[in-house]
């Protein structure tokens, strides 16, 4: 075919496809071509159809608006200018009081899931179904608390298996110990767990172990001890890090020195002196015990059951305390079972390792390292029962509070200003300056001279 033929053919194809006349196709009898006779490959493709079976809420909104023939214009006038030299992201005094009232009002709704009642006749399938139904009902209750009343809760454990481990630990234990972080004990304490322990058995005891207590001064420990005494909750102070960091060589040297001293005393002619010292010590111990018993009697008469001590206990003192705390009937005859419960990262595994003097539980900074409860014999009459770290629901005022307490991972933080403002409000100005070696700008003339520094001031000074 010559070039002219090719040109005519091309024009004829273009004219046939893009003719200015009607695009309607007809069959031999001049009737319209039925849709079932349209070519799938070309004609359907020109319609640009797309099957939609699922839409996001925003896409559904736009689709409905299009069907209704409604148009929307974006408004750019509702702009709020935020002064960087202000407590951005923090609640005012009035707002804090209102939120606190809501917390007090809905406190009874902040519960942990209970294990449903069961008997020996209950089949495993029935028990499993009952547990799932109760757990779902519990989750719905917390969701309603957040949605209907605008209450801000911490993230909490939504895996039923973790709660099943807690139920078993509570049932097996004589004393349930909540391990909390000394820097914010109330956030990590679950009051409803204490109620649940008493619901399971009246003979079970509750105890708060404030770990990382080396961060606190003697005055601060005394303040917390007095507070928990006022609400009749038993509390002890401990530092797993201090006990773990003790140099094994130094401990061994101390033991060797004590052994050598004892041998010298034994071989000494002055054995009478040693016997006199021993007798004096026995008398002192007896006097202390009698005084303690009298003090307990007096306190019980005036309505105070236990007075908490602010002493930072050593490993040996804590073990001795565990041996004497429970005097009632035991779950396992002759053995006091201590159940250890707490949030991830409060130092629960480190506490166990410090008590065992050798590593028995793996330690990790990642929440959920312990998957199932473990039992470890601390002594012939003391059994430790370690529960997986559980994040229990708790009230908070702002998300900034969750970030600085380590509940929300810092890599999920979207706005750094509120957490920095909160830290600047909690920590005195001079402490921040000493810690980072910076000079914060003084409040301007006309401002409160005692006001806390703002986030921008802290970050600019540090930068």
Automatic annotation (TrEMBL):
The alphabetized UniProt keywords are:
Coiled coil, Cytoplasm, GTP-binding, Hydrolase, Nucleotide-binding
Instruction: Output the Gene Ontology cellular-component terms.
Output: cytoplasm
Keyword Transmembrane found: no
> For the CP-type G domain, which residue ranges apply?
163-393
Name one matching Pfam family: MMR_HSR1
The record ties this protein, via InterPro entries, to: G_CP_dom (IPR030378), GNL1-like (IPR043358), GTP-bd (IPR006073), P-loop_NTPase (IPR027417)
Where does it reside?
Cytoplasm
Listed GO molecular functions? Answer: GTP binding; hydrolase activity
* Coiled-coil blocks: 267-301
Under PANTHER family, the record lists:
LARGE SUBUNIT GTPASE 1 HOMOLOG, LARGE SUBUNIT GTPASE 1 HOMOLOG-RELATED
User: Which protein are we looking at?
Assistant: Large subunit GTPase 1 homolog
Q: Name its species.
A: Cryptolaemus montrouzieri
